[in-house]
Amino acid sequence: MSEGFGDTTVEISLCLTNGMADPNSTHFSVYPNPTTGNVQIIDLPLGEKYVIQVFDAHGKICYTSKLEDSNSVVDLNNLSSGLYILKLSGKSGVRYGKVIKQ
User: Fold this and answer.
1) Could you tell me which CATH class the domain 10-101 is placed in?
2) Rounded mean pLDDT for each run of 10 residues along the chain, 102 residues in total
3) Where are the domains of the chain?
4) How many Å apart are CA 79 and CA 43, to the nearest integer?
């Protein structure tokens, strides 16, 4: 049996340590999620540069790159299937997200 998932865009907000989202923070979206290869990181603030790091479930860095556009493509084709944590570091702070590689 097969189920359709429709829109697979995931919006990720910066959360404070108390678990509540900061209403003044910006967000980013990861599409598609889950993915079989490339993902797009979209909705980043214009004019801000980021460093993205992708970590596996063991905390090992699997990918690092600079993002200089508000809509960037991240190549996950060389990674094995599994759950990965995204860390985006920029002048406005650090944001975390997750992506599933099928």
Assistant:
1) mainly beta
2) 56 50 62 95 85 96 90 93 94 90 96
3) 10-101
4) 24
